[in-house]
Amino acid sequence: MLFKQQVLLRQKLFVLGSLAIGSLLYLVARVGSLDRLQPLCPIDGRFGPRSQDEIPLRALQFKRGLLHEFRKGNATKEQIRLHNLVQQLPKAIIIGVRKGGTRALLEMLNLHPAVVKASQEIHFFDNDENYAKGIEWYRKKMPFSYPHQITIEKSPAYFITEEVPERIYKMNSSIKLLIIVREPTTRAISDYTQVLEGKERKNKTYYKFEKLAIDPNTCEVNTKYKAVRTSIYTKHLERWLKYFPIEQFHIVDGDRLITEPLPELQMVEKFLNLPPRISQYNLYFNATRGFYCLRFNIVFNKCLAGSKGRIHPEVDTSVITKLRKFFHPFNQKFYQITGRTFNWP
Ligand code: A3P
After folding, report:
1. Is 210 exposed, middle or buried (0-12, 13-18, 19+ CB in 10 A)?
2. From which domain of life does this come (predicted)?
3. Residue nearest to ligand 1 atom 12, measured at CA
4. What is the three-class DSSP state of 91?
5. Most informative mutation of 99, 308, 315 for ligand 1 (most atoms within 8 A of CB)
6. Cβ within 8 Å of residue 208, ≥6 positions away
7. pLDDT at 41 over 50
8. Does ligand 1 come within 6 angstroms of the Cβ of 257?
9. 180 φ/ψ angles, rounded to the nearest 5 degrees
């Protein structure tokens, strides 16, 4: 009898304990998400009268919820219609530069409640076959969002593809364009590393970076090598400037996004006329990865895939010096045009 009572008592204590722990976890999670939502009112005032471009802050809170459920395939078409979810053309595009940190930038901006990212690279403007499918095809590739949110896509090939500026201009001449750059030689080596890894995966051999980057006949920098050409940022930007004024571009420092992402993201928020909502809470340094990772709330966080942040092969220092010298005048021009100076050698 006494034993039975003890068992019952233990069961009751277990249930009560579970309830208490559950409530505690719920509260902690709530506080975590409230932490992100808290600065609603002060920001509202700071932004002054609302312009067409601004986002009503009420709408920001709904980002996760139905939208998230829909992405997981749990929301019905009727719910989408009722909640006024739409597939919108992007208001901003990360046009490049390949290996500059385009994925990190997109994922980090997606922390903002008013931003909805297109997860895949769409390659609409740089791929003739896709472009021929028309703008509706492009729109249908966009994620569902609330009308007051903005969609952002990234396809780094846009930056270097001849036809793209005119095509984007035809879609939206006032679109905002984001370019993330890294020190050009490092970017070129990163570019090479990605190709090298692809070759290795297919059990193929590949040239050394030095062999590709330096012309063996002239011993000069090989400007025919794509990884070198892509890093001549000013040449590509000049083509874009035939269609868009410089004010429509924002340059992100990809090297700083690695070491100190928040200030870079805050500048982008400003450029996009978004209220500042990404905070240090959303970014934490993961020592194992050696990079900042993303924290959406107390339960959900993620790091970028392992393909981001590869170890670069060692490159002959004389080749690095040669490349840096080669890029130097182009970099100066790039600083001049963009009004943003970097400490590149
Ligand atoms: P490396 O692999 O050379 O280190 P992209 O997304 O345009 O391909 O750029 C990839 C680069 O993003 C990586 O280049 C990496 O250095 C950089 N990066 C910036 N922030 C990162 C982050 N938080 N996690 C992983 N990689 C990041």
Report:
1. middle
2. Eukaryota
3. 101
4. coil
5. 308
6. 313
7. no
8. yes
9. -110, 125
Backbone angles phi, psi at 179, to 5 degrees: -125, 125
Q: Is 156 in the pocket of ligand 1 (CB under 6 A)?
A: yes
pLDDT, one tens digit per residue, over 284-342 is: 999 999 999 999 999 999 999 999 999 999 999 999 999 999 999 999 999 999 999 99
109, 285, 295 from 43: Cα distances, Å: 18, 27, 22
Cβ proximity of 297 and 33 under 8 Å: yes
Confidence of residue 98 (pLDDT cuts 50, 70, 90): very high
Long-range interactions of 276-285: CB distance < 8 A, separation 24+:
276/39, 276/43, 277/36, 277/39, 277/43, 277/60, 277/111, 277/112, 277/113, 277/114, 278/108, 278/109, 278/111, 278/112, 279/35, 279/36, 281/35, 281/36, 282/36, 282/108, 282/111, 283/108
Q: Which residue has the tokens 């100066």?
A: 332
Q: How confident is the model at residue 8 (pLDDT cuts 50, 70, 90)?
A: low
Phi, psi of 144 (to 5 degrees): -75, 140
CB 237 within 8 A of CB 179: yes
Binding site membership of 298 for ligand 1 (Cβ less than 6 Å): no
* Strand, helix or coil for residue 160: helix
CB 127 within 8 Å of CB 161? no
Q: Ligand 1 center to residue 49 CA distance, Å?
A: 38
Residue 208 one-letter amino acid:
K
Q: How far is the CA of 102 from the centre of ligand 1 (A)?
A: 7
Which residues lie below 8 Å from residue 256, measured CB to CB, with a gap of 6+?
Answer: 263, 264
Residue with structure tokens 């233990």? 10
In 3D space, the residue among 287, 309, 335 whose CA is nearest the CA of residue 186 turns out to be: 309
Residue 154, beta-bridge partner list: 94
C-beta atoms surrounding 313 within 10 Å: 12
Q: Which two tokens stand for residue 53?
A: 């471009």
